[in-house]
Amino acid sequence: MVAKYELNDDSVVVIIGTGAGGGVLANELAQKGIKVVALEAGGRYLPEDYINDEWDSFGQLAWLDARSTSGDWRVAKDFSGLPAWIVKAVGGTTTHWAGASLRFQPHEFKAKATYGAVQGANLLDWPIDLAEMEPWYEKAETKLGVTRTGDRTGLPGNTNFKVFEAGAKALGYKDVHTGRMAINAAEYDDRMACQQTGFCFQGCKWGAKWSAAYTDIPRGEATGNLEVRERAHVLKIEHDDSGKVTGVLYADKDGNQHLQKARIVCVAGNSIESPRLLLNSASALFPDGLANSSGQVGRNYMRHMTGSVYAVFDKPVRMWRGTTMAGIIQDEARHDPSRGFVGGYELETLALGLPFMAAFLDPGGWGREFTTALDSYENMAGLWIVGEDMPQETNRITLNHDLKDQYGLPAPNVHFDDHPNDTAMRAHAYKQGMAIYDAVGATRTFPTPPYPSTHNLGTNRMSENARDGVVNKWGQTHDIANLFVSDGSQFTTGAAENPTLTIVALAIRQADHIAREMGAGNI
Amino acid sequence: MTVQTMRQGMTRRQLLSRTVATGATFVVGSGFIAGIDAAWAMETTALKPTSMATLIQMARDIYPHDHVADEHYAIAVKGYDTTEAAPDIEAGIAALDAAARGKGHASYLETGWERDRVDILRAMEDGAFFQRIRGGLVTGLYNQKAVWPLFGYEGESYSQGGYIDRGFDDINWL
What we know:
A: five-stranded parallel β-sheet; globular
């Protein structure tokens, strides 16, 4: 029986956002008997609703509210109003994610200690380490059913993987396999096995890929402790004179505003909306925004060093068939400054359909150089590069007072300049990616620029000391004891790995902490 | 405005006899253009027929695929044939023709070599008109389901049970 709470019930935990962070936290708290109201800006879409058509699905799921961009990153030129490709729906971006589920490497929790001073980078060590996170990673892997963890086998490789694997082995790479994926290789946890359909990014119509939309959310609701209000867009977090947060103001689907009271508020709106909400909640007591005594809210925006390499062969590949990202080379993920940069990167298989390939292969490109590439679409293979980018204070989310959203609130501006370390790493990764395909007979290769960001991180970062960041090692804000951050904006540094598994592990851990602190009467 | 398949009605001979312009498409009388093979025809309501024919040629010059018929380019740009869009489009086409005349051609459509037309486009590629047409084509052309098979792209596979039993790992040349 689904819970229903009163607006003036100030005993509930309010969670803003229902993705990998908020959706998991909502279920974990509900399982512990804690009353939760989860406010989700988007609507509810389930596998039967997902559309296996790239543009139609984008229209259904993408977060398309007003945003602006600045900085020297190419996304600001190519997609000036779309800095990020994330989802507005119950389950958040877990509908869209590829499923790649990797633990951080030990040194990646200690980037400052490992890399030393990097000019222009605002590096900091996480206040936690891999040893502390290991049990939480294991819980997350079990929840998501990650392949090649526990006793779960790997997914079979599709054509795109076979090309990738053959090239990798020709280059001497050793750590090459079909990935640790939150996509079932065999039936698991009432979800069926992958049917190799493609369209992983458009929502898995089989439910073979883990998404909070059809796992954690309904399970949390089934406890009777969780109420999910969809199409409820949070505008502001309210506080009292003592500085404790007391509730949130949100607009419902008709634009009517409501104030939901709360004992605790957890912000999980992804790394653009979460800091924006804290900044838009500025008050006389907190003129720079909530939880911002450090001045770090919105800063250190990271998006991973990314790029793609596509290659054309003289024979068909048909890369769109099968699991989109079940393929990884991990040899370059190590920290090895002899390559000319700190940190490392992963190489993962990737395919786009023809419509998105036309949009993303070389944005703005035209003429025969461009179209002859698409003429060979059937003979194309592809990979994605994802590596650690440097946190920089000036890469940040700010309020754009000249651009308003549909509620009249300042839209977020996303400023990003590549750090020289990011640029050096990308150049290295392009070279290796092209070499992989050249080794198996590519006739042309394409070092493809970054897409709008899918990994948005770091804008409310975790720190040991309150002066260095926004939240402590539990995701609790340094300034306000009953205000938490529960998404990837907590990340102190980005690591090379796709972030979702770590977001989920942190959310499970945070639920434990919140329950403990509530039980002790501390919050 | 509609693009319709012309399997009956007008023969290729009849079309040619009414043709008043050359190029990839034929302008047939007033308010009406058609493909040279009479496989398709299009009525225009707001744009001049020669302007629509020019726009179709421009679309092909921006994203040239020799195995994709004009009909698909026509579908990709037909949305500009509205009273709202027409003034800007006509102005853009006029600028295109002026640029062609500046290089000694009678018009853009009558510029014989693709490389010469591309030179004209390169000189205006940062302008609003070019970017509007190019940007619109990214979805207008490549998101037409009818062109997908021409590139080998199969679209959705869910309705057929995915590729698990239909060749997801079928590659024999490695």
